[in-house]
Write a structure and sequence with these properties.
This protein is α+β, with helices and mostly antiparallel strands and 304 residues long. It has eight helices and 15 strands. Helix 7 (266-274) packs across helix 8. Bound molecules: zinc ion. Zinc ion is lined by residues 136, 138-139, 141, 154, 156-157, 159. Residues 136, 138-139, 141, 154, 156-157, 159 line the site of zinc ion.
């Protein structure tokens, strides 16, 4: 499973608008609250890390601070997330020290159970959105959360604002038995990955793939096929994984985007998937690029 997919919660959208139901759930000891601190989720320490849930008692006395966001329901139990970034030492203050900690999500995601990683992605993205949208982009006045934390309303002009998700295309360009991989200058050698870029205004997914590959590597592509997607809450992306067939071969990189791009044979890619080689290291399984690369490399590779 691609990390951050498979969130098991029922988002129960109609419940977000039911203020009385939300208040009851926040008064119910069975309700689970996921604390985040500086966008890091609370995770149990130990050999098998998983999300650490608190009871709503955690929220006592937090009027005027970030309010809990309703994530959804599982097994009849309501789940919320709350931002504790206003507290200097939340592990000590709330008695989590020793049993749990706040690891950076990117570092822990691959170790969490898949459903937990999906919940953490949802929580991180929406908590981050609240932290950065305290003021109305229309008139500049304060906004306040509404609908269980799934919108914010301006106190002056009444405009309603919603959490945004930014689509990003990530594409493995292929030419028969070769695929195109690129590397940014900040990446350690010999790390390469699939090309990627934000979908722009007024653009289809396929048009974004063709434009990005042309801009970054000077390659023209024909057929584009959507393969799979991945939430990427750093801060608010949705990775749209595609394959694209090259119709030209000569690479001409844009040095502002890439330091290097090259064609790699299926044999080279298969070797790098097993272990990094002097010429190529591919992204880890946490990244959708890994899954795009593996799916292509193994598609027609005879298995022993
Ligand atoms: Zn406004």
């Amino acid at each position: 499973m691609i990390p951050f997919s498979g969130n098991p919660l029922d988002r129960a959208e109609p419940r977000r608008r039911d203020a009385a139901w939300l208040r009851e759930r926040l008064a119910d000891e069975a309700t689970r609250v996921l604390p985040l601190w500086k966008l890091a989720p609370l995770v149990r320490t130990g050999d098998a890390p998983r999300l650490a849930w608190a009871t709503p008692a955690l929220l006592d006395g937090r009027e005027g601070q970030p309010q809990p966001v309703f994530l959804g329901i599982a097994d009849g139990v309501a789940h919320f997330a709350v931002d504790l970034s206003d507290r200097p030492e939340p592990l000590e203050e709330f008695g989590f020290a020793g049993a749990a900690h706040f690891p950076e999500l990117r570092a822990i995601a691959g170790l969490l159970p898949p459903g937990d990683a999906g919940i953490a992605a949802q929580a991180r993205q929406v908590v981050d959105w609240h932290a950065r949208h305290g003021f109305c982009p229309g008139c500049g006045e304060r906004t306040r959360p509404k609908d269980g934390g799934w919108s914010r309303v301006c106190s002056a002009c009444g405009a309603e604002h919603f959490p945004r998700t930014d689509p990003v295309v990530i594409m493995l360009v292929t030419d028969a038995e070769r695929c195109l991989l690129g590397r940014q200058s900040a990446w350690p050698r010999p790390f390469f990955s699939a090309l990627a870029g934000f979908v722009e205004a007024g653009e289809t997914l396929e048009e974004a793939v063709r434009r990005e590959v042309s801009e970054e590597a000077g390659i023209e592509v024909g057929e584009v096929r959507y393969q799979a997607s991945q939430p990427w809450p750093f801060p608010a992306s949705l990775m749209l994984g595609c394959t694209a067939r090259a119709v030209t071969r000569a690479i001409r990189i844009d040095p502002a985007e890439l330091e290097e791009a090259d064609w790699f044979t299926r044999a080279e890619v298969c070797a790098a998937l097993a272990a990094p080689t002097p010429r190529l290291a591919v992204p880890p399984p946490m990244a959708i690029a890994h899954h795009l690369i593996r799916a292509w490399a193994e598609a027609v590779t005879p298995r022993s």
